[in-house]
Model the fold of this input.
Amino acid sequence: MKGRLGWMIGSMVLLSVGGVACDGRRETAMTGDKIVKTNEEWCGILTPEQYRILREKGTETAFTGKYYNHHEEGAYVCAACGEPLFSSLHKFDSGTGWPSYWQPAQKGAVKEAADDSHGMRRVEVLCASCGSHLGHVFTDGPEPTGLRYCINSVALDFKPAHPKKK
Done:
């Protein structure tokens, strides 16, 4: 019995620290027209890398994302739910290796939350529609806002302003 109890406790600890991501647990419900899915549903929609970043608050390696050096005109939308988040009109080269914007595409597109992880205080940026982790916002950006929304490429999809004809 002792061995079995130890195994059960160890399994619960593993689950509680995120050892099994796609286990079907229901996430915190959001109100209004917010998108609510189980972890299992998110796993069916997102790639493993997208799930790690969008749902488990991960970060992609700098200078590796497909949008950090992307200059086409259009809209950057949430990779999880498709909601418009940022515009190419507000994108700038911050030199950090992540796509950076000085403001969201529209008011209310993103929400912010305190992030005290990794021994520092930061401001996390989340999709206002589905709650997915996008990146962080810093106060060292260009005018007119002075903000730098530093966003993971994998958290975004791109919708060109002028789609190419096939």
In short: The chain has three helices and nine strands. The radius of gyration is 18 Å. The CA atoms of residues 75 and 159 lie 5 Å apart. Strands lie at 74-78, 84-87, 91-92, 100-101, 110-115, 122-127, 133-138, 148-151, 156-160.
